[in-house]
Design a protein that fits this description.
It is built from 16 helices and 26 strands. It is α/β, with parallel strands linked by helices. The protein folds into three domains: 158 residues, 3-Layer(aba) Sandwich (Rossmann fold), CATH 3.40.50; 200 residues, Rossmann fold (3-Layer(aba) Sandwich), CATH 3.40.50.12780; 99 residues, ANL, C-terminal domain (GMP Synthetase, Chain A, domain 3), CATH 3.30.300.30. The strands form six sheets. A nine-stranded mixed β-sheet has the order 2-1-11-10-12-13-14-15-16, with helices on both faces. Strands 4-3-5-6-7 form a five-stranded mixed β-sheet. Strands 17-18-20-21 form a four-stranded antiparallel β-sheet. The termini are far apart.
């Protein structure tokens, strides 16, 4: 297997151990159109990483003086993606994964901002990224299979006569290892720098909390330029010797795979569960029932929803369909995952649970979440002031999200009632869930929203837009909604509901309905009906785009 993977990179040491143990399934690449798949064992993964890392190291050794050991890659979710990522770490460099959905100007910004001397693509993405690399005068190479000597091998082919050189490998656990770009909701996207140390802490934390092991098998349908897809699923699975099946999202095919009995855990965003439901609604009763029963197979341990708020009606309808109470958690690019409902025991709709292993959680005087621990990022790349601004003097990271811890006796009772209601919807509710709120509920965390867009200051009140949204989504005429604070001379900000409707609804009707369920000052004062809401690739609402319209 070569010596490349013997270096002190915790992930690679684990992968080599899995290979030595003879674990047969590491990465599976499936095609819903043909139904075909390719499976790589951990041993095949090791040999491929070793070969590609050797070429990559030679290309980086010839980089311009002063350039960092950073590698950007535009590669579709695939075995090739995994080989590139691990090869980057094998030579002590930093990964800069790019979104296959980004337009050229965005790709150019990421490559320039991260100062990558080397850009890699697969053959499908070459036409999109190569002009960017050429314009920025970066070395460019293509990762592609070359089935030589009967062995399934990937090779990295430099383009346009790229120079190579000899260089030894140097590994630092505190050096740059992964740079992911924020969504840029408050300005230009920033490069969030994680180290091998912070990444390893994330794997260890999720392994303990979600009970990952080499027995696990997960289907992966999320983008691979985001913390959820990269860390929570792909890398945590590999760290544990589990199998990862990469599939372009197709509801019929993915549901078939989840129902097969192979899959032990599934991670997605609310939009995925909505699309599953829409697909199932088109089926006849017998076909739908077959899938509903298949989702209840005994091997499927848990299903996660994250990266965007999960409406309680969506959670309840999925419980009825699948027999699973979705596990909600809280995280962000800068910290990995910080809070989670428990893998065993009652899960609380609308809440994100408690601190994960290796995570300390606190709040500031305004109710903002503060996080500390080894899994927190190192810095925003080349942004010393921005980095400094996001930490307290005693080292807590300021997430920018507001939280409610526990609640009034009435709220805690409502949390418990919601949990029992969703459990009952599964058709297999545990018999030991108490009617009254347990003591631990006094410390549960409930996200109230981003301080910048989800906390509305109206008439002297601080109001959570997410709380109002969760109520509005229970209205039978509302399909989707976003609640924002519209600038107003009298109120400061006016509570405004921007909705996609399934049937007509007036503001008068909405206010009358809302006053029965919300404090009067939380009830929307305006209703704006739209055809669609702006969302990012993970289905998260981009409220800044809605708010920007009011500034024009």
């Amino acid at each position: 297997m070569g010596s490349m993977l013997s270096v002190q990179v915790p992930m690679l040491e684990r992968i080599q151990a899995h290979a030595s143990a003879g674990i047969g399934r590491a990465v599976i690449e499936s095609d819903p159109k043909t139904g075909s798949s390719i499976t790589f064992s951990y041993e095949e993964l090791c040999s491929n990483v070793t070969a590609v890392a050797k070429i990559m190291n030679g290309l980086l050794a010839a980089r311009p003086e002063g350039s960092p050991m950073h590698v950007a890659y535009l590669v579709n979710p695939s075995i090739a993606y995994v080989v590139v990522e691990l090869a980057v770490w094998a030579i002590g460099a930093a990964c800069v994964p790019l979104s296959v959905h980004s337009p050229a100007p965005e790709l150019e910004y990421f490559c320039e901002d991260s100062e990558v001397p080397l850009v890699i693509s697969d053959p499908d993405m070459e036409a999109k990224i190569k002009p960017v690399a050429t314009k920025l005068q970066r070395t460019f190479a293509v990762i592609a299979p070359c089935n030589a000597d009967g062995q399934r091998q990937y090779t990295l082919t430099p383009q346009d006569g790229a120079s190579t050189a000899e260089a030894s490998v140097s590994i630092s656990l505190d050096g740059n290892a992964l740079i992911l770009y924020t969504s840029g909701t408050t300005g230009k996207p920033k490069g969030v720098v994680h180290t091998l140390k912070s990444l390893t802490a994330q794997y260890e934390s999720l392994t303990e909390a979600w009970q990952w092991s080499a027995k696990d098998y997960t289907v992966h349908v999320l983008p691979l330029h985001h913390i959820h897809g990269v860390q929570n699923i792909l890398n945590t699975a590999l760290f544990n010797g589990a199998a990862v099946e990469l599939i372009p999202f197709d509801p019929a095919f993915v549901l078939k795979r989840i129902c097969s009995g192979d899959v032990t855990c599934f991670h997605a965003v609310p939009t995925i569960y909505v699309k599953f439901t829409q697909y199932l609604d088109k089926l006849d009763a017998a076909a739908r029932n077959e899938i509903c029963q298949g989702l209840r197979n005994s091997n499927l341990r848990y299903m996660v929803s994250g990266s965007a708020a999960l409406p309680i009606p969506t959670m309840q309808s999925w419980a009825e369909i699948s027999g699973h109470v979705l596990l909600e958690r809280y995280g962000m690019t800068e910290i990995g995952m910080g809070l989670s409902n428990k893998i065993v025991g009652t899960r609380y709709p609308g809440c994100v649970g408690w601190a994960l292993p290796q995570v300390e959680v606190s709040t500031d005087s305004e109710g903002g979440i503060l996080i500390k621990g080894p899994l927190v990022f190192k810095e925003y790349y080349k942004r010393e002031e921005s980095t400094k601004k996001e930490f307290t003097e005693d080292g807590w990271f300021k997430t920018g999200d507001n939280v409610q811890i526990g609640g009034s006796p009435e709220e805690l009772k409502q949390f418990q009632d919601y949990a029992r209601q969703v459990e009952a919807a599964t058709g297999r509710a545990p018999s030991d869930t108490p009617t009254d709120p347990p003591e631990q509920l006094k410390t549960i965390h409930r996200i109230m929203g981003r301080s910048s867009v989800d906390i509305i200051k109206s008439g002297g009140y601080k109001i959570s837009a997410l709380e109002i949204e969760s109520v509005l989504l229970q209205h039978e005429n509302i399909k989707e909604c976003a609640v924002v604070g519209k600038p107003d001379e009298t109120w400061g900000e006016k509570v405004t509901a921007v909705c996609i409707l399934s049937s007509p609804l007036t503001i008068e009707e909405l206010r009358k309905w809302g006053k029965e369920r919300l404090a009067s000052y939380k009830v929307p004062q305006e209703l704006e009906v739209v055809e669609e809401l702006p969302r990012n690739q993970l289905g998260k609402l981009e409220k800044k785009k809605l708010l920007d319209r009011y500034k024009q």
